[in-house]
């Protein structure tokens, strides 16, 4: 897993705890020698700052359209990728149906 890119690691729909674990391993905040099962509890019980940080990172990646999230709390890499030219305001306007298209030109 260490040599793979994050887009490959999260290519398929992945439960939130596994996605957080994979992200944590990828960025190096979870010990390389710890299995998912040995750390699973930190993603289910409040009070673990590293787990909270990883959850917030996943949610930030959804907000930036890097990841997709479904109703079953699973994540996967957005195959269409994010549009780096879109601001948060643009994304919110698109989601609300106020504008179509992408980039600053579409919002203006």
UniProtKB/TrEMBL annotation:
Protein name in UniProt: Uncharacterized protein
Taxonomic source organism: Streptomyces polygonati
């Amino acid at each position: 897993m260490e040599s793979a890119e994050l887009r490959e690691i999260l290519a398929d729909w992945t439960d939130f705890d596994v996605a957080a674990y994979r992200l944590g391993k990828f960025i190096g905040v979870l010990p390389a020698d710890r299995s998912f099962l040995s750390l699973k509890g930190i993603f289910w019980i409040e009070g673990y700052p590293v787990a909270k940080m990883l959850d917030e990172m996943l949610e930030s990646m959804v907000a930036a359209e890097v990841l997709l999230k479904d109703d079953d709390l699973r994540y996967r890499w957005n195959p269409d990728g994010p549009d780096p030219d879109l601001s948060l305001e643009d994304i919110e306007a698109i989601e609300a149906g106020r504008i179509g298209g992408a980039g600053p030109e579409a919002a203006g």
